[in-house]
Specification:
Chain lengths: 342, 255
Amino acid sequence: MTKPSSYKLGFIGLTLLLLLCMLISISLGSVSIPLGDTFSILLGQPRTEMGWEYIIWNYRLPKTIAAVLIGGGLAVSGLLMQTLFRNPLAGPFVLGISSGASLGAALLLLGGTSLGLTQLFWLNDVAIAIAASLGSFLILLIVIVVANSVKDTMALLIIGLMFGSITSAVVSILSYFSKAEQLQRFIFWSYGSVGNLSWQKVGVLALLLLVGLTICLFCIKSLNAFLLGEQYAQSMGIPVKKTKFFIIIATGIVAGAITAFAGPIAFIGLAVPHLTRQWFKTMDHKILLPAVFLYGALLLLICDTIAQLPTAATVLPINAITSIVGAPVVIWLLVRKRKMLF
Amino acid sequence: MEKYIQVEDLNIGYGKTSIANKINFSIPKGSLTAIVGINGIGKSTLLRTLSGMQPPLSGTINLDGKQIADYTSSSLAQKQAMVLTTPIATKNLKVAELIAMGRHPYTNWLGTLGSYDKEIIKQQLHIFSLEDLKDKYCFELSDGQMQRVLIARAMAQETPLVYLDEPTTHLDLSHKVHILKLLHRFATKHQRTIVFTTHEVELAIQLCDYMLLLDGKENAFAAPCELIEKGSFETLFPKDLIQFDARTGSFKITK
């Protein structure tokens, strides 16, 4: 066993990096605010320059906190799915959560028009969030029902993928028949975005994540037992069926809520658990859960910062950045270590 | 002697398909029992049924005076431990971590190890001569070492009963004997009741207290020498292929 002190060092390092990145992320944007001023405004010292205070408290801070919650939450749900399916390729979206959310958003944004619901009221962000979460929970519900009748966890994985292709087919059909502006709206949603979240939405997101992550905390021991396989877990007194149910519910809440508010953000959930295992060299979920959350938050913040770099006025789609930045990192790590630590 | 496991008229299988039936035996505490039989006769299914992982089609399994189905999964985990043939899902665990998992039924909700738990883990590392390997990852181990680690994990669970599914497969003769002698020692010295399936009939004859011969007909159960006297081994394998030599307790190829 690696000495606990090295874990502590890892956690301190991660936390410091995360705080630094949060500070940088708050100071960057269409109006650039120097780091020092950002810091003093956050500490509550009054500044009057051009409404910096207003920008920071009402735009930058909720956005940064949202990025932390979204990155951390996606990474944790990725870890849960990888352990549950004992498959290094599993991510938060394998159960069809993201395709369900896409379906919900598509039905509202694309299907809504054909039904004549063109009023702006139907197309605001809250409506999209509600439609997306309804969609993801509907698919999740179907998957849970199916999960109870199939014993094999791998079959569940494939069923999740199948639901994914069914929903994406429906989305294709819907987009084929929709107008250009509706399609554009939907495509923008599918790019993913951590910005544009009000304090209220961040609060709702935080609350849902709190529920999901609390469920995870009580599953830590079972998750560790799952590393040996379901039969061994059962022989060690773990209520396998109940645990599986709770893990799926927790993932559904966390990934579903995130997708509803921020769109389907790829890659973080799949890659971060691997990166964290490389860094901390452990499979113990007691260490991994908090570490994966911090790491995920850090990575998404970095990606979000990069997304804002090219020009001050435009922001690149976060979904593209997570993959462009993240994928080479994972490839490089695996090639260097020559072994997938799973 | 006190009967620890009592099995009556057991019929095992999946759904409506019976794999083996009319299985009757009772095993006393602190004994070493081997289940032998040809491939596909239902040894693993029997072990899974005995351990409560799958329900029997009919018949009763009584463990320490109580029906197996009446145990909760957590109380059962303090009664019996398992070593399975399915490989563990991840080999990215250190030897000591894997053995520590055997303490799960006794630790708190976070799985924190107490001083007693650590003592038990140390003991198992010593008994299975794994001290030098304790910080190695499971993917670095040979088959023989891995098997020792898996058995050590089951023994760390400190259950009166241990089921092992083919613990000696893929091992060379010396490692086979080493594992079987360790099991024998746990039965005699630590009063553990040990039941395992195996294809090593000749080794089992020499070491086990009891043997169950799954043949789909009689399913004979007795001490090895009694079984030899009754001539039960002669019908275990097809006669035109292998014959049993009762004098030496070994099998000969029919020429």
